[in-house]
């Protein structure tokens, strides 16, 4: 949307503090013209300019300093990097400066004059008005305008292909990912780990990924295309390769397979997502529960699984350390599973669910033993899901010397005990559980990539690989088990059976198994 020309400020927005940040490298011939073209009369009252010369080999710093001394329309600060920080590294300095000095908005402008400073008021408006957290100038919104105004055809085609690729994997609909004309909300920048981004030219891609993963709002406004006699310092093929690697890395990070610190934009709050509509731990668990069953849902969260179970006529008791005020629970027990004892009000159930919780416990063996002793009731079923630490990406990472915890996935930061198929079955056996069924669960590709064809295709491939080699390619482990009778129960039953045998005066007095004898199948 093109806004009307002229002053676009309101009384409220004109009082906000704006930093125009100009990245400069060998821009001696253009820097003064860029500064001169800033429409001072259309900017908020508190608008400052920061120029950072990234160790230029020409007189960029002196040219900017000369303008600062001679012109009094703007408050200008000129800095010089003694060592070249790279395009991304220079941006890090500018954004850190904006955060440290308490600006509301920072505008990124290039010192070579490729982006028109006259468009600043239009680009600033959505962010100043609180309608967006970032606003990008796009050369691709107006069809064919970029080519008409001098963008080389190979750059135009490359821009289009990379932008399609990035939109596809991020689920966005931006017209251009590769414009360097950008306005950012400074509080939004403070929310993302931009300091961990590359110092190279694909810094701009990294920061878009971070905004998208964080759920921040991005707007675009058309800008004119200009190509002069400036020297391009970008290696196009290397840049394209780095962009692809960043996008793929972000996608793998979102699936929880491999962790990258720069894409860890979590807000620190627990996130509970229902994995529904495809083969997942939640779908498999709900399908395994009989209709009308009495269910105990351990570490139940907000009750998403319980909601599905109530549709099957089940009566669900939730248990978690945070009270869930949800109508789908017939009862709720507030309890931390890491406690040394189980709550006294815990009863008996047809099915007990422990979905994605055993890995969070410091002493899962103790917990399993207590649960069996307290909740044994003949044929109670126990359904457990947990990550498979031996999944292929983790094995590959270990082979490459990597073992990084992250905010979610197999190596979630909150995981304290992790299992393979074999170690999980061994622990259950030692704690008195008869394992009835073990299955591999694929990675949640539809959750990470959306419900499109790519997510479904990768899910199908993962399921096929699990069929061939479950311990290698399962993202999670699904176990259905039953409690063996605790020793106390067995001893009590032996005493009762012996007493009945002694009292039997007629017929065969040998001990007979009771009709409700527990099965060990």
Element layout with pairings:
Layout: E1 17-24, H1 31-36, E2 46-53, H2 60-70, E3 75-80, H3 86-100, E4 105-110, H4 120-128, E5 134-138, H5 145-148, H6 153-170, E6 182-185, H7 186-191, H8 203-214, E7 218-222, H9 236-254, H10 281-288, E8 294-298, H11 304-310, E9 315-320, E10 331-334, E11 351-355, H12 364-375, E12 381-387, H13 392-399, H14 421-430, E13 433-441, H15 445-449, H16 453-468, H17 470-473, E14 476-483, H18 487-503
Parallel strand pairs: 1-2, 1-4, 2-3, 5-7, 8-9, 8-11, 9-10, 11-12
Antiparallel strand pairs: 4-6, 5-6, 12-14, 13-14
What strand order characterises the main sheet?
3-2-1-4-6-5-7
- Domain tally: 2
What is the CATH C level class of the largest domain, in words?
A: Alpha Beta
Distance between the termini: 68 Å
Can you count the beta strands? 14
Mean pLDDT: 88
Radius of gyration: 31 Å
Word description of this protein:
The protein is about 35% helix and about 15% strand. The chain contains 18 helices and 14 strands. It is elongated. The N and C termini lie far apart (about 70 Å).
């Amino acid at each position: 949307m093109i806004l009307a020309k002229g002053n676009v400020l309101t009384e409220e927005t004109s009082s906000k503090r704006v930093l125009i940040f100009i990245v400069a490298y060998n821009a001696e011939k253009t820097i003064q013209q860029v500064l001169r073209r800033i429409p001072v009369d259309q900017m908020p009252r508190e608008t400052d300019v920061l120029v950072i010369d990234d160790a230029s080999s020409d007189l960029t710093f002196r040219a900017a300093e000369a303008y600062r001394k001679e012109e009094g329309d703007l408050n200008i600060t000129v800095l010089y990097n003694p060592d070249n920080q790279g395009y991304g590294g220079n941006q890090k300095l500018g954004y850190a400066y904006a955060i440290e000095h308490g600006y509301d908005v920072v505008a990124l402008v290039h010192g070579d004059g490729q982006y028109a400073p006259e468009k600043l008021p239009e680009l600033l408006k959505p962010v100043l008005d609180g309608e967006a957290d970032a606003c990008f100038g796009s050369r691709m919104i107006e069809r064919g305008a970029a080519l008409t105004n001098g963008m080389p055809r190979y750059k135009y085609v490359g821009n289009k292909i990379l932008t399609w690729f990035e939109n596809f994997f991020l689920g966005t609909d931006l017209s251009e990912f590769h414009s360097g004309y950008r306005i950012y909300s400074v509080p939004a920048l403070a929310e993302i780990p931009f300091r961990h981004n590359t110092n190279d030219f694909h810094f701009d891609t990294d920061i878009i990924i971070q905004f998208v993963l964080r759920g921040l709002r991005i707007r675009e406004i058309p800008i004119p295309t200009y190509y002069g006699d400036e020297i391009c310092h970008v290696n196009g093929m290397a840049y394209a390769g780095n962009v692809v690697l960043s996008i793929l890395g972000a996608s793998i990070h979102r699936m929880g397979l491999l962790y990258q610190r720069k894409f860890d934009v979590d807000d620190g709050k627990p996130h509970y997502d229902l994995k529904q509509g495809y083969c997942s731990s939640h779908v498999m668990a709900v399908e395994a529960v009989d209709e009308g069953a009495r269910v105990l849902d351990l570490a139940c969260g907000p009750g998403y699984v319980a909601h599905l179970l109530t549709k099957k006529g089940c009566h669900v008791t939730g248990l978690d350390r945070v009270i869930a005020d949800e109508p789908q629970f017939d009862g709720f027990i507030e309890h931390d599973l890491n406690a040394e004892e189980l709550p006294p009000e815990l009863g008996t159930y047809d099915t007990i669910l422990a979905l994605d919780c055993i890995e969070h416990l410091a002493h899962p063996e103790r917990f399993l033993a207590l649960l069996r002793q307290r909740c044994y009731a003949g044929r109670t079923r126990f359904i457990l899901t947990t990550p498979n630490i031996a999944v292929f990406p983790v094995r590959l990472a270990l082979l490459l010397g990597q073992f990084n915890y992250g905010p979610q996935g197999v190596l979630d930061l909150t995981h304290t005990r992790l299992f393979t198929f074999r170690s999980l079955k061994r622990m259950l056996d030692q704690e008195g559980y008869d394992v009835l069924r073990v299955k591999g669960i694929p990675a949640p590709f539809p959750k990470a990539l959306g419900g499109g064809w790519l997510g479904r295709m990768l899910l199908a491939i993962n399921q096929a690989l699990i069929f061939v080699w479950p311990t290698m390619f399962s993202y999670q482990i699904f176990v259905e088990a039953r409690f063996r009778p605790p020793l106390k129960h067995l001893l009590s039953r032996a005493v009762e059976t012996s007493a009945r045998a002694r009292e039997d005066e007629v017929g065969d007095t040998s001990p007979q198994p009771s009709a409700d004898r527990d099965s060990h199948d």
